[in-house]
Amino acid sequence: MNCDDSAVAIVQEDKRILASRNFADRELQRHLGGICPASVAQQHKVQLPVLLDECLFEAGLHFCDIDAFAVTTKPGLVIALKEGIRKAIELARIYHKDLIPVHHMQAHALSAFLVSDDLSFPFLTLLISGGHSLIVLVKSSENFIILGKSLSGSAGECMDKVARELNIQYKDDFKNIHPGAALEILARSSTEIHRYPKLPDTIYAHARFDIGIDERHSIPPKPIYKLKGSTVHGDTPLKLYSKSDFKK
Fold this sequence. Notes:
There is one protein chain. The chain is α+β, with helices and mostly antiparallel strands. Helix content is about 30%, strand content about 25%.
């Protein structure tokens, strides 16, 4: 469950997904030009019981067969998250089951284990969502080190804003598609694609992306190189650094 999708899944210990359902009112998002927290909270309240029943029916299970209930608790919009938390607490109390709080960005990182049997700790992951852009070193299921994060808005947030400025949500071709996703489709179909020049084999960071060895480290104040030309931030140059420039 997140700020726009209501989702439920029943997963076994061996990572096999027995059933999954999700719901998102793309037409309403299109009409509103994005996510409305109050509307999404109402969506969760109405749809979660329906999705739960559908998953249980597909898996041939009952609530009493479930070993534990996991629910997203952070980060996110409180008004939307509380509906899922309320439902999970209710079910855990009724059926005397364990309640597992889930940090949704950590869950994004660990979800890679659902699709790869070769993955092992530690590994590096790039997490891009509607509200976050992070480069994270995952050392264990409980140990996450943030190596870099965006200084302002996330990639998803920026895409939504651009889509709204272009009024993509009002185009019939993208009637049931999230504005940010519609923008991505338009970009893929474009014949005018501009790419960054080939970069040297070194650590690099955009001037608007905070990179460090961990949260206590920072980018040195002066870059070694500056690439000529403009970037997505206008005339702000891309900064390049070697490993020796990162200070503890």
